[in-house]
Amino acid sequence: MNRVNRRRLLVRFVALAAVMMSLLAVAALAYPAYAKTALPARPEPARLMTDLAGMLARSAADEIESQLVSLWQDTGVQLAVVTVPDLGGDDIDDYSVRLFEAWGIGEAGKDNGLLLLIAAEEREMKFETGYGLEGELPDAFLGKVIDQALVPKFRAGNQAAGIEASIKMISDRLKGRAGEGPGSDKSSDSVGEAAGVIVFLIIVMVIIAISSRRRGPRGRGPGSGSGGGGGTWRAPMTLPKSTGGHSRGSSSGGFGGFGGGRSGGGGAKGGW
Q1: Residue 140 pLDDT > 80
Q2: Is the pLDDT of residue 262 over 50?
Q3: Where are the beta strands (DSSP E) in 7-143?
Q4: What is the spatial distance between Cα 123 and Cα 270, in angstroms, rounded to a whole number?
Q5: Per-residue pLDDT for 80 more than 90?
Q6: N or C: which end of the chain has fewer CB within 10 A?
Q7: Helices and strands counted in the chain (H then E)
Q8: Cβ neighbours of residue 131 under 8 Å, at least 6 residues apart?
Q9: Strands 124-130 and 263-271: what pairing?
Q10: pLDDT digits over 89-113, tens only?
Q11: Burial of 75 by CB count in 10 Å (0-12 exposed, 13-18 middle, 19+ buried)?
Q12: What pLDDT, on a 0 to 100 scale, did the predictor assign at position 203?
């Protein structure tokens, strides 16, 4: 190999090395933009209303917490509302999925969790739906909740009223389903139990009547007669036990904590 060829080969090598170094530099500069923002820790003690952005007064946050616990106890749906100061450069879709999975919103096996994530700086909000609720709370409905309940109130500066209005819309839809979860329609349970008792008593009376006819009037014999100890057989009466309504949470009515639910990837988002 002559001197000219060696020089050309050296030039090509240097050029290739320069290109590779440039690519590495670009990748290093771009990496922070794709790095995942650290997620907030799950609240302890457990709460359904977590205002990390400080958007709500303490009394308003406590009232919303109470409404969320009632929604959970009445319908079996865990709606967690979380406000954050910012998304740290992340996309709200990615952030909401990661937060949902990290906190385990909902119950394992039921996946009955729903997350409302509100980012203060970006002025964005997103519903993230658990697998088990995608049929009952479709994306189109959650989009209406954002457009009709949340956005107007947030634009007016009344965030608490917007969150409360969204809870009501979701609660009304869930309570419209037949035979939903815990604590629902106790009056129907009572009516069913009363009907069962009545039917049971009628059956007992029929059995007693048939038994009395079969025995009929008998002659006097040992243990019989007007003063005898014989008598008519009576069926034992055992009333069915009342199962009562189901309930969730502790005896004080507080939220017991998330149970490992998974996100289904569905939901809706908007901004104000």
Answers
A1: yes
A2: yes
A3: 49-51, 78-84, 113-119, 124-130
A4: 9
A5: yes
A6: N
A7: 7, 5
A8: 111, 261, 262, 263, 264
A9: antiparallel
A10: 999 999 999 999 999 999 888 899 9
A11: buried
A12: 74
Encoded tokens for 202: 């009628």
Give the Cα separation of 235 and 36 in Å (integer): 72
Burial class (CB in 10 A: 0-12, 13-18, 19+), 238: exposed
pLDDT of residue 107: 87
What digits encode the pLDDT tens for the residues 199-255? 667 776 767 766 665 555 544 444 444 344 444 444 444 433 333 333 344 334 566
CA distances to 35, 36, 252 from 25, in Å: 16, 20, 58
Q: What single string gives the DSSP state of each residue in 99-127?
A: HHHHHT-SBTTT--EEEEEEETTTTEEEE
Per-residue tokens: 100:
């949902």
Q: What is the pTM of this model?
A: 0.62
165-183 average pLDDT score: 76
**Nearest CA among 46, 43, 41, 51 for reference residue 254:** 46
Q: Which of 58, 42, 57 is nearest to 258 (CA)?
A: 42
| Structural domains of the chain, with CATH | 49-177+253-271 (3.10.310.50)
Tell me the C-alpha distance between 97 and 82, whole Å.
13
